[in-house]
Amino acid sequence: MVLGLSQTKIKNRLIKSTTKRISENNAKEKARQIIDYAKNSYPAVSANSIQTQKVQYYATQLLHLIETKKQISNQMIEKAQQLPEFEILKSLPGIGAISAALFIGEIGDLSRFANHKKVNAFIGIDIRRYQSGKYAGQDRINKRGNPKGRKILYLIIRNMIRQQKAAPNHIVDYYYKLKKQPTPKLDKVATVACMNKLLKCIYSMFRNNTKYDYSHAVSMDQ
Q: Per the confidence metrics, is the pTM higher than 0.85?
């Protein structure tokens, strides 16, 4: 299939299909490499075989699903933008439009919770302690809440850590503080602790109708 196309056609397809900016010369070189690989590959099936048609069909279905997902995401963002907490959430470094929309979709109206601990319990990251007499077991989070909400929070924390250089974030500071203690916390334990802290921060911002301020957040931690 590749060998049936000219280097120019492959080059033009590369330029058109990639989301990153690629120069004409770079695309031309990539096209040459693709043709070289195709020449050295073993042709298992012909271009018009049933196997090739199946691959083309599934590739088309995949592209359709990707486009559908994109449309649904845009619809979610449009609805979430109508709510005041959308911009509050987006003011936090590491939370984009889709993350804010997903959070709102899973957590719902924060005003129905009396305090941030109620939100924690709803999601299922409140601490459950095992204790009997002199025995004290290891603390574990209560996973009886909203698993999708926990997953969204987990991904938000990981995204904050990845984007830590973009803007100061007291949640990221707290994560590294937990990791650098004399007895460093495991990554999962530190992440869950950050999820707890993030919920407390979001709830406070929502109650006070304020956007994220790093200096204020740090002062509240002291």
A: no
